[in-house]
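Milestone M4 deliverable, item 7.
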Amino acid sequence: MDINKKVKSYEENMINDIKRLVSIKSVEEEPKEGMPFGEGPAKALNEALKIAEELGFKTKNLDNYCGYAEVGEGEELIGILGHVDVVPEGDGWDNDPYTPVIKDGVIYARGANDDKGPVIASLYAVKVLMDMGTKLNKRIRVIFGANEETGFRCMEHYKEVEEDLTMGFSPDAAFPVIFGEKGICQINIKGKYEDDKKIKIIELKGGEAANVVIPKMIVTLENDSDIDIETKFMEYIKEHKLTGEVLEKKDNKITLRLNAVSAHASTPWEGKNAGSYLMEFLGSVMKDNTLVNNYNDLIGKDYLGENSGLKMEDEYGPLTFNTGVMEAKDGELKLTIDIRYPLTEDFEKVFNILKKSFSETGYEFEVIEHKAPLYVEPDSPLVKTLQSAYEEVTGDSKNKPYTLGGGTYARAFDNVVAFGALLLDDDENAHQSNETFKVSTLLTATEVYVNALEKLLKL
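Output delivered:
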């Protein structure tokens, strides 16, 4: 059977099924009875299971934490780990983020590439194997998580109630094979601050998730100085090629909105953090606000953690630092930060350096999530097999297995790595507005996965 031709025959079906998933707003919400992550993620999970059933899989819902679709037989279990939850949509979309648009061979929607499109590619790769009559001497299980973006509690539940995997991959990154992932920690920083004598912060707020570069900030100031804040603000955003506006101006109060550029926290250099730019602007018009001064001194616009004493890297890449949520009101501060630290570094070392740098501020620190680094030997049978499958389909033998700063389900299991689904020339715009997934990438990734699974069945 011509695999390329068979995959191509499913193009319309795959696109329609991606549309079914991305049309569901599956951002984590308040839990409901039987829905640990809220209604949206549960709805998306059940839709994914329904699609799998329609394709001939046996399915199981694990208490709306996650679920899976399975085929094959035998003791060994190949896992394909994707997720159906998404980060908040944010601003700046050209179309409604949950009404998928296809233009010039590109799917636009929240979750299109992270991770609903790749989930469908994985399902259909197994479907093609079934159509080919491939002997499924191992079980293949496509696992759908519903809490990847905000905690991996779905995988914790899976491991409590289900069997472990023999091997597998997560289609939640890019090709070729990713054998290492940086350590990830997300930390709440809380504390008090003293206001400026002439210009006071009434309220400041921005960001919705630690793993997203803040796309916009809103601040309300009380101005008893002779500084023309509006003029200064407009000059600042023009100088830094940002956008913004005065939302309200009344008596001595002014509300400003600063718009910057969102990005994934693993690649903060691809965005511009609205929180950091706003702090820099405020520092130019007020001198005695301890929140502003502490932020600019200890964080600033740097995304490598240098101001906090955290600049470090190994052969696999540098530490990255992102402020994802920022709130201030009535002299109380809350920041949520995301740190991706090198594979060879230790979390306690990173955390202790951070606390020491902030020691004079009096701020309190709370680790809300920590994931240790992932490392699978590059010459392991799993990595070598997946790499060969990629090279055979794409003809690309130049690009070799590598590491990244993102965090995938691979780190929740042994002998699992991230593998696709984006190609090297694709835009990595997960967590950004106008998120995309090329139809051509969908087809290529599906074919790579067919080839990879054929090879894994023979290991």
